[in-house]
Amino acid sequence: TGARTAQQQAKIAPATPETATAAATGGISIAVLPFANMSGDAAQEFFSDGMTEEITSALAKVQSLRVVARASAFQFKGEKKDMRAMGQALNARYLIDGSVRKEGNRVRITAQLIEADNGVSVWTDSYDRELTSVFATQSDIATAIAGALRVPLGLQQGDSLVRNRT
Question: What angle is formed at CA 148 by the lines to CA 146 and CA 151, rounded to 5 degrees?
């Protein structure tokens, strides 16, 4: 997966006035959909919601990205709608969708980047971690996901994905 051809880039041209404006100013619109809690434990819902929030926060720090607000994306929590419809409703060119699974002290977070105009997954990866600190684990995985999206989103090498935390 990696680099795109000019034909592939043309295929995912902005479809709405908002995304056209974003493209003209160098921004790429993206929404992080609520991650599904697949652990079978309703008490773990806070972890999947926190994972969504961390990824949203990490991506919002990228100057060339326009990230849909968490509250807007959370209207789709638990919804089984078509990705194209959600992308259009959120005016997002790309969507990030994912899930969280927990077994004992280990978590697996799976994330995928989806082109909103056609619903096609262009990148996916899984992250396994020992859950020793909820916040550190969420931050670590959010940073890894943001870094992995550099190539599929066509970001320049110099674009800073995540600023150092204080």
Answer: 110
